[in-house]
Amino acid sequence: VVVGDSVPLLHAFTRLSSVTLEWCTAKGTLSPTTTGHLFFLATLCITSASCFVTTHHLPSAVSPTAQHACSSNPGKTLNTVAMAATGGESAPSPAQVLDFLNICGKLKKTVRTGWKRCGVQPCESVADHSWRMGVLSMLLPPDVDRNHCIKMAIVHDLAEAIVGDISPHCGVSDEEKYKRENDAMGAIREAAGDSTVGREIQSLWKEYEQGQSAEAKAVKDLDKFEMMVQAEEYEKETGIDLEQFFQSTKGKIKHPVMQGWEMELRDQRGKR
């Protein structure tokens, strides 16, 4: 990705966070943004990855015993087929998928505390932020596992669906914040039926929090950079001075490619 081209591309993505779904508006209901909708689809894809088995593959992928279990107990068909076709991996039931997605959906309505505190109205949701981080992960260089980063970016703030967006200004210690979010991720894993994918989501969150792997470090850099891009866009749209977000991230981005993105962004902001 050419550094000079990456920042305008991100600005284009951001326009989706101000586009509401027209059918919701027409019905007079609370309108999620397009990015919130895309985030929801992304979490659904992660959840269903171990569940999708086409009937075309059943003869070779599923044992006769499993096929009999499916036909005799339709309520467990999805879980049984998925386990048989994925070498024993457990998959959430349809009811558990819905429970999990209902939790994820709360992020569409959870606003980012930092923007709200600065008087930005309306401001993005946590789902908006997580979606663009997922897209940003696609632009990462090949020295990290992009697919792993995409999944990590999508779920890195998932605990906030239960505990809310706890910012440094909320007066909550780092230890207490981690405890609340860790407990929330345990509840989210259980909502997914303590399935293979539920455990994967919790593991991705813990990996991000620990920040030791190359992928976790990259996604943490993306978290800071995406916030800077959003701050610059809000400054242009609202005239509110958001310098504090540029000061708090100074020298914090470590990956050389993202350092190039940051330099370009700061240069563009300085020329405004």
TrEMBL record:
InterPro entries: HD/PDEase_dom (IPR003607), HD_domain (IPR006674), YfbR/HDDC2 (IPR039356)
GO BP of this protein: deoxyribonucleoside monophosphate catabolic process
Span of domain HD/PDEase: 122-237
Keyword Hydrolase attached: yes
Cofactor requirements of the protein: Mg(2+); Mn(2+); Co(2+)
Class of enzymatic activity (EC top level): hydrolase
Pfam families documented for this protein: HD_3
GO molecular function: 5'-deoxynucleotidase activity; metal ion binding
Cellular component terms (Gene Ontology): cytoplasm
EC number assigned by the record: 3.1.3.89
Chain's role: Catalyzes the dephosphorylation of the nucleoside 5'-monophosphates deoxyadenosine monophosphate (dAMP), deoxycytidine monophosphate (dCMP), deoxyguanosine monophosphate (dGMP) and deoxythymidine monophosphate (dTMP).
Record-given protein name: 5'-deoxynucleotidase
Organism: Hemiselmis andersenii (Cryptophyte alga)
